[in-house]
């Protein structure tokens, strides 16, 4: 199916009709968030950048820019912006660490183009989250299947150098999901640094947090969530 309503940027393919492989097809969507992908065992091993793309039908798809192409596109990445993506490869989505329910993933290749679309009339939402209940989080624990989102109230923050926003040392946050459900949220690296920056802002820090794209893990009977992204 091709939508011809975007005459100024050409017809585009809706996510559900994408074809596998490298085809003459392009998509339009809003970049919700992007994050750095590193090796699970060696965090110094930089693999590339992932981002979520949200379409007019309120569907999302996972996009990936490999390490060799990051320098080419990084300066143009803007969360919240609407982009047109042309000339890419479509593959089946991995069964591990899924950030969307879509079965496919868009991979950037050497001749991929990323174009900022200024058409403000496009009806694409600004946000979409996959908020999961505690029961769902427990079902995902230790499976590495999905990286969901969660909302909770911050009760305590622990760690060293909390007033140093450049520190990337681990920060441990206690988050209440329900009156009788508390989880531990571990923040690492750049994410820990950004969180320290929030703690040290001049404005009042809110106690309710929306946490996106994290990996639920059970440790010795305690529910600990490893935060992987922004």
UniProtKB/TrEMBL annotation:
The protein, known as: Replication protein A 70 kDa DNA-binding subunit B/D first OB fold domain-containing protein
Entries under CDD domains matching the protein: RPA1_DBD_A_like
SUPFAM superfamilies: Nucleic acid-binding proteins (SSF50249)
PANTHER family according to UniProt: OS03G0429900 PROTEIN
Top-level lineage group: Eukaryota
Species of provenance: Eutrema salsugineum (Saltwater cress)
Pfam families: DUF223
Domain called Replication protein A 70 kDa DNA-binding subunit B/D first OB fold: residue spans: 28-114
